[in-house]
Amino acid sequence: MSFDLSRLAAKQKRLKDWSRFTKQEVVDAGLRSTIDASLKQFRDALATCWDAGSVSEEMAKHIENLERSLEELNEAARLKVT
């Protein structure tokens, strides 16, 4: 489950894509608020790893859980858009 700092760049790209999608496409205010809060947690977790220069096993699990949650939230938002 753990990963090194090189994988954080891909996660940052996902963060950027999800943020853009949320701003441009999510019209449900409650869902947008939930996604925004999760994006902030995800962003903070990535920043913590960059600042530390490493990714602990605990942080890797936290990031993976946040990522899974964001995937589900964004899928729910996509279904509401279409």
What's the N-to-C terminus distance? Answer: 34 Å
Alpha plus pi helix count: 3
Number of distinct beta strands? 0
Helix/strand order: HHH
Oligomeric state of the chains in view: single chain
* Average predicted local confidence, pLDDT: 91
Shape summary = elongated
**How large a portion of the residues is in β-strands, by DSSP E?**
under 5%
| Unreliable sequence segments | none
Helix content: over 70%
Q: Decide which structural class fits the backbone.
A: mainly alpha
What characterizes the major β-sheet?
none
What does this structure look like?
The chain is mostly helical and 82 residues long. The protein has three helices and no strands. Helix 1 (8-25) runs antiparallel to helix 2 (29-52), helix 1 runs parallel beside helix 3 (57-81) and helix 2 packs antiparallel against helix 3. The longest helix has 25 residues, at 57-81. The protein is elongated, with a radius of gyration of 13 Å.
